[in-house]
Amino acid sequence: MQRVLSSLGFLAIALAPFAAAQDTRTVTEPVIPPFCTTLDAHLTAINDGTYNTLAPADESKLDTDRIQKAIDACGKGQAVALQVHGKSNAFVSGPLELREGVTLVVAKGATLFETLDPKILENSPGSCGVVSKEPGRGCKALITVSHVSGAGIMGDGTIDGRGGEYILGTKTSAWDLGEQALTGGPGVNGGGGQKVSRLIVADHADNFTLYHITLRNSPNFHVAYNAGDGFTVWGVKIDTVHRIASAPHPLSRNTDGIDPGSGSKNITITHSYFREGDDNVAIKGGPGGVTNMSVIHNHFYWGHGMSIGSETNGGVSKIRVTDLTLDGTDSGIRIKSMGTKGGLVHDIVYDDICIRNSGRPLDITAAYAANGPVKGNLPPTFRDIILRNVNVSGGGKILFDGYDHDHRAQLLLDGVYIDSANYTYTFDNADVTVGAGGTNINPGTGTDASFVGKPTPPTKPDTCAARFVPFPTN
Length: 474
Description:
single chain, 20-stranded parallel β-sheet, six-stranded parallel β-sheet, 35 strands
């Protein structure tokens, strides 16, 4: 046990609660619980030239049973630790379930790999590792946290979903299946969904914590959190290969980072670094909505940015995004919905935001078409949206785009400045007001759109240069 304690002990440093956060809890830095059990690695990771993985002979040496038995036997307020043992540094597992008050710790230098065998993850025979029109996910998550409270996943190690590696017995990866579902490919027969796993799914999991863990290359979403009260993400790295949609082999489709969803509240994401093939964070306001969420002191790299939607039919409110740096994201500040999944998005504040080299740095649209028809009987409304102290550089498209005359996008720009690069605008069914801090954004005359206040000269100093730091790979 001492080996793990020495590598993790420095993590247990409590910080003062955040001021002015929207999460109604008092959130301090998590502390790794005492260990009920430590498990030694029996496998050794290799690199196949692209990914860290396992030797083929080790794929069948599953650690699922011994990890699950340790979790089941652990008491509330304690942790199961996975640790390096000599040169052995890897575990491989099928589906795991966390229990009430139990934390899984992956120690520094250790990796928990998801199995590449779809039969181990399938919900029914043949349902996993395919493209299919059948309803449902098809695959279990690697880690499920369901109807328990006080559980956590912590440590300086890595959980690797291996989304780019070939599914066992095939020459197709989970990400290849994502592309087949998108474009139509072998066996798709006119459409279907990718039936692959998500890395972590938490459902009705109050006071769930992710701390200092690295999540890598999930086959689909990295973390989905639904219908819970209290979710802390602190010091987490999500690291997935760069998706370039126009490339011959784009990779990493639908690999969202953190997705708080239907009926969730009191959420804090802080001191974290995310780069994925889809939304870095996506607030999914389906049935039950999402409210009371703070996103504070974070860095996003490639991905689709800080997103709300596309589901907003349950409502999204009381969101605060502060001290966020977005470097090379496809979109920056993003609110997306459409007439088939729309609802009220309001009381949203973005403050102290730096955006560089984003194709759509300010991307607020009710005409999002990727997840369904734009027009429908559930139109979205965006109001009380405040952008304050936002600095944008590198050009791109700016969208202030409501749904129709009665369902508008209403924004306040207070200290929002762009550089001298080229920007284009979409400005429809929207009302933009300039606050005391001014803006040099000038969307021109839009369709059924108003701009209250005059654009001001670009006098705001660029305070963002020092904030664009490399993704931490150590």
